Amino acid sequence: MKGVEAALAIWEETRKGLFLSQVLRRFGEDLPEGERKLASTLVYCAMRRYNLWVEILRSFLRRPFETLQAETRDILILGCAGLLEIKHFVPQSLVNAFVEATKKKNPADAALVNAVLRKIASDGREKLEELKNSPNQINQALFWGLPQWIARRWMESWGQDLAKKLFVSQLIKPYLSFRLSPRTDPGEMGEKFFEEGVKSWRSPYFNYVLRSNSFGHPPSMLGYNEGLWTPQTESSIFVSDKVLSLSSSLGKRKILDMCAGRGIKAGHILERAQDVTIEAWDLSKNRVYAGRRELRRLGVQNRSIWKVGDSLKLAPEEAPEIVLLDAPCSGSGTWGRHPEGKWRLSPGKLSSYSDLQRDLLERAIGMVTTGGIVVYSTCSVFREENERVIGEALCSNPDIIEIEIEGGGFPLQRGRPFGYYLLPGSPWVDGFFLCILMKR
Ligand SMILES: C[S@@+](CC[C@H](N)C(=O)[O-])C[C@H]1O[C@@H](n2cnc3c(N)ncnc32)[C@H](O)[C@@H]1O
């Protein structure tokens, strides 16, 4: 099973700090479709509930998990996740594949891996059910794949019902939404996708967005290189769509995108508003490079200026009428898509995000004049990165007011008391926060 070996190699790379999706793309290209799917399913299952697999393994091991060699730990985690989550595989062949991999990496541990994985195949589900049905908060955090401190914080700040929704969202398998360019006909594009084996249908929220049940590799799909569509989650589309409607209803054409990243929102705005110009900043040289390339792909690069640098220090070419601050954040609303993020976050890191967000928002407010708009967004569901940041900005800037947002059918959850949340709850909608401010 080449998929098992590839999963182990991907897992090792991810430990160096890379995203699963990045590594998977690199490894996946050389694998046949079935093996690529197996590798992807294994690494995502393992990463989504990493602490759960470690806990289950502990209960089946006679020695402390930490004393095992790193390669053996990896094999046991992927094996445990595969056996308890992948239903369409014969457990015995999966166990055999992991034992074979151990023989290559750590022959001395092959018997241990064989014994532990066989035990998990026969008794592991019972343990899983036990945790699922336990009312204990620690067991719930384990079952849904969350670090305990995060589960506790969400329970405290969201209350039991909404926190449960966030817990469940950790296990929703994400799919692609395609934002169509204004020159792309949704019906024709849907047919082309179908010919390529991808089923798609219209999003209930946007008439220029198609949903799919694919997790595919966008650059190798039909129409991507020609700029006919862009993969973008519908929550992210909601944010850039709001910038578009503010620009058109208030007649504001000069936009500053303070943290433009790879230019996904900038591309959306420029392709749908021909009279808008965007100045795009980002700290990362690589992202600015990718952003420029993205706008070129869409054919809108000549209405943009890009700068690499710290948005706390850069100066705009022209006074902006709208500032979009799509702030760097913990990404907690996108952990269904990028589950490695939750294991890399710490309380200290979370508060350093809040500090940076507060400074960036102050800078954004400082750059607009009377009537100017600041659109603040994060893909996080932590109040520390959202309402708290907005609350501090409103306190220190009495000339700023919040503007109400219409959901247009999108299930918005009012922040407490500022801004709006899009809570993660379907494969096409990540968790996002959005707040629109105006200078009086
Ligand atoms: C949420 S991402 C932006 C995504 C982007 N708006 C899009 O839709 O493609 C946040 C970005 O902020 C950038 N960033 C972080 N700190 C920054 C700073 N001090 N100045 C400018 N950019 C910064 C990161 O490099 C990252 O690309």
From TrEMBL:
A Pfam family that this protein carries is: NusB
Name the domain of life this protein comes from. Answer: Bacteria
Q: Which InterPro entries match?
A: MeTrfase_RsmB-F_NOP2_cat (IPR049560), MeTrfase_RsmB-F_NOP2_dom (IPR001678), NusB-like_sf (IPR035926), NusB_RsmB_TIM44 (IPR006027), RCMT (IPR023267), SAM-dependent_MTases_sf (IPR029063)
Q: Which GO terms describe its molecular function?
A: RNA binding; RNA methyltransferase activity
Which key words are in the record? Methyltransferase, RNA-binding, S-adenosyl-L-methionine, Transferase
Is S-adenosyl-L-methionine among this UniProt entry's keywords?
yes
Residues engaged in binding S-adenosyl-L-methionine: D282, D326
- Residues of the active site are C379 (nucleophile)
> Which SUPFAM superfamilies would you find in this protein's record?
NusB-like, S-adenosyl-L-methionine-dependent methyltransferases
Taking every annotated instance into account, which residue ranges of this chain make up the domain SAM-dependent MTase RsmB/NOP-type? Answer: 165-440
Q: Name one process (GO BP) from the record.
A: RNA methylation
The family annotation for this protein states: Belongs to the class I-like SAM-binding methyltransferase superfamily. RsmB/NOP family.
Q: Protein name, please?
A: NOL1/NOP2/sun family protein
Q: Which organism is it from?
A: Acetomicrobium hydrogeniformans ATCC BAA-1850
